[in-house]
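Hi everyone,

Forwarding the result from last night's run.
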Amino acid sequence: MLIGKVGQVGWELRRALAPMARITCVDFPDIDLTSGDSIRQWVRGSRPDIVINAAAYTAVDKAESEPDKAMAINGVAPGILAEEAKRLNALIVHYSTDYVFDGSSTQPYVETDAPAPLGAYGRSKLAGDQAVQAIGGAYLIFRLCWVYGARGQNFMLTMMRLAREREKLRVVSDQVGCPTWSRVIAEATALALKAATAAPDRQAFSGIYHLAAGGMTSWHGFAQAIINLMPEAEKKCAEIEAISTAEYPTPARRPAYSVLACDKLERTFGLRLPHWEESLRQVLEVGH
């Protein structure tokens, strides 16, 4: 059962998982993640072996003014899904975020580092992680970082649109992370699931795993790379100015350092995601 079928990661999961299993796909408004009854009804009706929650409240700034809604979708719903999955002896896959950390580190974050979210969105996502863990069933939680792809709403598509419209862009250069393509997230999930479901004990792999592209860059560096790869005829932008976070105030504070160490993923599943620049080139070659 895949929840969030039209999201960036969910759409790619439908494609990556299709050869492996029969998938029941669902999204809002058919399922309402603010309603426990709606969640239970869907899981009990589908009776899945695996529940994948690729849905989330992702409006980081809006979460500051809608903390209860963000908490219901990101914090409470995953716990109900985990409860229902455990009842069916099913495995739950849930996606988390680099925003559970405050970004004060200077070393890539490992899974055991203490979370300290800066805003309502990060707090709601952390609550979801903790709820899934507390149920005690079989689970895989993948923490993601700077997700983008050829569909949906994301930084890459925004930069490409602005580069067609404007001669100059101003982009924050003092926030660092690992831009990660939604397709490689889906493919890595499929491979991890193959290993986890083949194991005699479904709980043997339970845990949190960081799942992010290799390398790191700033939003400014990411923007520069995107625009450099665009065909000349398509772009108007000739300059990208580096600015500080202070020059681009937002309702929610962002972590300044969001680099995730993915050694545990490699040790456990033998998976290592490609360097972010390599993925970016592929996305722009593929185009969809």
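Residues 2-286 form a domain with the Rossmann fold fold (CATH 3.40.50.720).

Cheers,
N.
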